[in-house]
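Deliverable D5.2: sample structural annotation.
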Amino acid sequence: MSVQGVEITLSEEVLGIILDIPCKVIRFVKGCKTSIDYVQRATKFGDLKCAWVPKKFIKVEHQLYFEFVNMVLLPRTEKRIVASSTYLFVMEQLDIYEAINLPGIMLERMHRIMTVKNGKHGITYKYL
């Protein structure tokens, strides 16, 4: 990049320092698994060790995370009443205040929908 005739290069780390943005953020959610501790803490039955949890088994304070992930971060066209392992992972990251790269997650999801479902998804990210 050239600024007033001077060539400069900025790496992701330098830009993160300048903009005060953490460099270590959650960029991808595909294939990520939540911890068993979080599943036990977030569900009404602490002994659940499964890949998905029905919404009615999630504690009330964690259902807000579920709705946020379901409606904003990873929207779907069909009604979602089950928290998958991906949903649980994102909910856990929100619960522990981990930085999440929302544009990266959205791009990953759009790419998956375009390649797997041939672009027939019917969803939009209307909260941008």
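Annotation notes: The two ends are 28 Å apart (CA to CA). The CA atoms of residues 55 and 81 lie 5 Å apart.
The annotation will be released with the project's public dataset once the embargo ends.
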